[in-house]
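Follow-up to my earlier ticket, as requested here are the two runs.
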Amino acid sequence: MKKKVNTKACFGMMGISINSWKLKFTFTPTQKNNELLTELDEYIAIIGKAQESDGYLQTQIQLRDGVDRYENRKYHEMYNTGHLLISACIHYNVTGQRNFLNIAIKHADLLYTIFMPDTKHFGRFGFNQTQIMGLVELYRTLGDKKYLQLAEKFIDNRGKYEVKHHTTTEGYPIGDMVQERTPLRESNEAVGHAVLALYYYAGAADVYAETGEKALLDALDRLWENVTTKKMYVTGAVGQAHYGASVNRDMIEEGFIDAYMMPNMTAYNETCANLCNAMFSYRMLNLYGEAKYADIVELVLYNSALSGISVTGKEYFYANPLRMLNNTRDYNAHENVTETPNREPYLSCFCCPPNLVRTIATVSEWAYSLSENGFTANLYGANTLNSHLKDGSPIKVSQETAYPWQGKVKLNIEECKAGAFSISLRIPKWAKNSKLTLNEEELSKSLEPGSFVKIERKWKKEM
């Protein structure tokens, strides 16, 4: 007989906090499309040909006359590096092939040589912080601690040097715009460019997960509270203004301004910033196992993330104001304008479309987490989980739901171990008067919105 238990939740949902969720499920690729793999190999070969002998790989510099490598941070070399490292690690973990990973290793080794030493020229360089996440991912993939050390170095350099223009900063705002006035461990307020800040925080959360440094976590706690309680819209969107000033009167763009200053029509709310808000909260969820972080992830995914893409998947918003009136704004006020009344098939700054689709592709890894002896459902949506618990025992669960249009969720446990284990289910913060049934019998547990409910038992075979 098939082992099957029906667990139903009518929203809200369920919950008890888990002490530590540092583990996550590993998902096996389901398509295994050899044509896609062959196509990827062709692209990777092209990337490899572009890489220089010492590992440098930044085509926006290599193809630009009169600009040298790591000459000016405005060219966002660190941003491109981070995405390169992350994608190479994912490619290796999914395919087992090292062709892309070897390119990433060669590039990261060059970064270590250049940026690990203390130099005035490079000390302020790493302001667009995806490289921190990429280096931690490379460390997790290879186990080489130098990549983790370099990731931490980029954190340590913020707020370490005098804030004034020099050769590497000309042409781009300085100070709070790029989080360089205050060291992260002393920070209390989210400032500056929202994407740069939230990638920074997400990277720092990755570093904390590996080092356990309390000062980092304390700062991340303060910054998460500041973002989500004082500078976030009801849609989970962040970055209140296209242009503005920080509390230190530094010029900022596409970013955070004063607390509770939340304009609707002039809100910027870049799609990337909203996605980064979810990425940061997901990492905090992994560190704490508290439902409030998953609530933010869900809020973003269904609102300020999806607003950035059309139903066809071919048109995009860069900015996502809450109110838009076509007859009151000049949408052609300057070159490369990013606030448009309609989603566009192409954006001159093309960061948001790939960031959005990669996040959608990643959501399956966010849906469930491992607990000490069981699993936790963080997000809801029709799916099948086929994986293993921490002790190596198989777990297969199907989820049936019309969420978010309807609040009923049904979990069918189709394969599991014979011994007792726990299932923890999230009750969204917005959900009131929820109920939980097990095999059609209502459980008497108190279901508190914004928490997890934990059920631990031996799951019986259906007769």
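Run two:
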Amino acid sequence: MDFPAARFGGHDLFDSAMLVTALVFVAFSKRIGTLFDRKALHVFCGLALTCSTMGLFASLAVPACASALAVPSAVLGGVGIALMILFWCELYCCLNPVRVGLCFCASIVVGALVVYVCRGFLHPWLFAAMLTLPIASLLCLRAGFRSLSESELPCPVFGGCSFPWKPVLLMALFAFAFGLKEPSLYAGSFGLHSAFGTLVIALVVFAGIVSQGSRFDFRTVHRFALPLMVATFLVLPSLGFLDSAAADFCMTGSYTAFSILIMTILANLSYRYGVSAIWLFGIERVVRTLFNLLGRETGSVFARFDLVAGLPSDFALNALVILLVAILTMMLFSEREPSGRWGVVVLDEATGDAGEGGFAVKSQQLVELCGKVAKERGLSRREEEVLLLLAQRKSIGDIEEELVIAKGTAKTHIRNVYRKLGVHSRDELVELLETF
């Protein structure tokens, strides 16, 4: 639907408001601490999105007021969406990677289906649905946090780790490429977040996680992302048919696949090391938005010229994306697992200081210690995960729940771990780890 206010406010203003909001929360993340218990912020988020929706529909009813409603509607929408993203990211950081993948993919699928349904609504019903959705999202968020135990609730640690620059830089490059193609995506029937490419990839990853559970290899996700991007910028344009529709499908699919991977990687870093979700995802959102804006602007500049250095402008854009894909490939080659460090460096590693960042330091040291022992004693990937949970004094029930495995399976893995390490009890296992 074409809202008159959107012609004056524009997408750039919305993104700018979202970017500034994320920056503010990053700057004050240490003072804020957590968001799940900030009821006032939840109410403000709901009110901001409600007022933004009302402004858009008011411009539809009274087009003469569109210019006056445009700026506040765009700004309130950007602020509200930024808050909503940070709220949900904080919840994802309390879950293990399998649950993060399931929940994030399910949210993408549900969101796309909601858009498809709402497209058939008359204006009054669409207005009611738009007012209801933010409230429903906040209620689901609240239910999600209530389902967690007290030990699973966010308790961020500050000053323990450097920023994981690798995944965020990867996301920035994808966002730039996405921005290059974004104008054609907006011109389509379904937009960005409900496009068929988005829905299909989310369904495929969701089905893969459901069928394989904790055995699901998240490396498969980036194997979707890179080929789809190559198809978008190289293969399909060279074929010369179905260029727009097929390229849009591949681009949205590629971006969705990598968004799922980035969410899993960053949430896992927060889950393992206690990194603040506000700080981590706030910076990621700022970088992503900036590079997306840069991609849009670059695409619009190239579109004004038929030739660049004697070559078609499309050729220059494709060459640029080839370079980005090459950089992505080299960076992905250095980190093959979502559970890797991804550029994280523990700041207190050299001194062993267990002050404010002590929990993060000890947590990361334990992960690395278990990885070293597992490699030397020939433990499988699953057995290494069980070893880490045993070292953390988790019960058998906790291990089964965290790894999403059937009852009795954890006992089998524990027996195998004990046999390969030559120990007979958890106390002996801890003593063995201490010797390393």
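The only thing I checked on run two: The mean pLDDT is 80. Let me know what else you need.
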